[in-house]
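re: ur question from yesterday

yeah so i grabbed the chain u mentioned. its 684 aa long if i counted rite. heres the sequnce exactly as i have it in my notes:
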Amino acid sequence: MNRSGINTRTYNDRKLVKWLACLLLCSSISSLSRIAEAQVKVPDMVSKTTARIGVFSVKDTLFFNDPTTGDIRFRLQLPAGYQPSYAAWNPTGTLLVISGKTTSTTVYQITADAAVSIKELPVRSQAATFNHQGDRLYLFHSKSILKSHLSVFNTQSWENIKTAPAPFNLKNLSVLPGDALLTYTSGGLIKTVHTADLKAHKVYWETAQQDIMTSHPATPDQLASATPKGVIQIRKMPQDAIVTEINGHITRIKALEYNPAGSLLASADKYGKLFVWSLATKRPLLFKENIMVPPHWDTTGTLFVQDTARPYIRHILFRPEDSTNTPVNIPKGKGWFGAEKMSRFNVIPQPVIDYSPETGIMLGLSASLLVRPIDTANAGATYRPSIYTVSGAYGFGGQQIRLGLYMDTYTKAGWHFEENISYNAHNRNYYFGIGGASSREDKKVYRSNTFNLNGGIYKLLHNVYNVGINYHLRHDTKSSFEDKSTPNLPEGIGGTLLGIGPVLRYDNRDNILYSTKGSYLDISFFRYGIFGIGDFNFNKIKVDYRKYFPLSKADHPVVIAVQGLADMTWDGQVPFYNLPYFTSDRTLRGLWRNLYVDNQIITVQAELRGFFSQADPRIGYSVFAGAGDGSRNFFRIYSPDIKFGYGAGLRIQIVPKIKMYARVDYCFTSQGDQGFFGGIGTAF
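ran it thru and got these structure tokens back, copy pasting raw so excuse formatting
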């Protein structure tokens, strides 16, 4: 009987255990379901913590909790449908700013057990931050594509001290340590402004969009940001340099935050993967999955997340003492930390919109491939990227078709190869005469098909000296003049030019794309008709000297650039379409290519280059002036007839981190001419 009783009790106990297990399982599933449901709503959740109190939201309820234990102190019920979009604390945790789907922004006074509304700002805001003193509130508000605003308020009187325009896609508003600068992101830009007047301090144009950004808690020069591909970039702001990249995520990062000491960085992505990175040892200290709630550091250096299903519970993820432990469950990876992976290759497509008196409006397309040096740090005293461009355009004024290929290659071994190939079908030009006999009133229109190849092979010697060989091949069909009364020109029958000769070059410019200091000297000699090849025989020498003077030591100084150019031919018959000139893309910019041509020309010009804002070097200007003259032979027969030109231009940067600018110039001359010229790069 006892045995039977024992068996019965055992059976009943087992049955009870099974029922309890089922009940616990159902409860767990229900709890997990509630957690999952809450996690789905995480994007609407706001969570911020200070030393004295923390806050997070679930729907339209704000929960205030103890920052150490996580215990709920009190809650604040917001109006239905308020849906707070952000929360911003002052440094002492006594003021809280929130805004949601309403037309106002509310400031709350926070005590140990209550939140009292003390100010209603009459604007709907999308981001806010306090300075470290707590006496200024910066508010991004009234967001629209056409016009958005950034305002600063005095937190004692709530006076609006200053309001300035702001980009509609402003994100990640933060005051840097020291309270002198405010920073935010806007697409691919990181911008710092002065906190006193909200005027721009500096604009950094990045190579990738900036999704999220956080400032270092102690060092105003350091920021961490993340790209849409989940790459974390640690940057030094004064140098505009990314000192390291962290590659652990494969998708967008939703949370990025330094610990209070600035030695660790926590990152969490939209797939729920979380890392804690040691910036000193350059390795991950923690990896967790399924963390769908943004993590936060408290003042002790503890990383936690709030349980949205059970608001009174928070989960500790990382403690300060964990820094010395051996990390576990870290996924295998190579090169978590590394230098910025900036692509060596930039493809720059752009439309061709050109105008010249000869062709009228030309429209087309071009694409440039810019290749950076493999080792930029050891590329020498000057920056030498390689550039390859293909282009095609159609001229509506003369039904002209223009095709081009430009190749400028620098090798690690110190060789430089340059090729400029073009083909013009129905090439429409004007003939004005030669030298003193030229007259703009007596211009004659002619057409021809032209193939042109200019090139050279150069070898770098002793860092800044180059020696090499230049060559020039050109073929023109017979020139067809629209005015049949035009005198027959011997060279008008067309023909082939072939010239070759040595070149000596000195070049210590700091950047060939946009020079701010240094010098350039090119002395080239050509012999045309060498070995009896070609239809024309003559000699040519060209001397091109350039010098650049920065007017300050600023990052983007105003520069005075000067150029002297002598282009001389002698001892033979030069076809009129290949005579030296100083119009078009030279000193008298935008004027007819053949307006002032002669056997020999000398020209000088100077240009003042700068930027409309030192803070933003993406848009610049130029003011230029020059003079030129020609002669059949300056050393034998020269009657001065100097032409002067002057004008101004606009420069627009087209590639981030690279000083490559598109330019548009308008020129006036002492002869009453005016011309418009556009292109890529500087004039000289």
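noticed a couple things. Helices lie at 2-40. also The CA atoms of residues 45 and 58 lie 6 Å apart.
anyway ttyl
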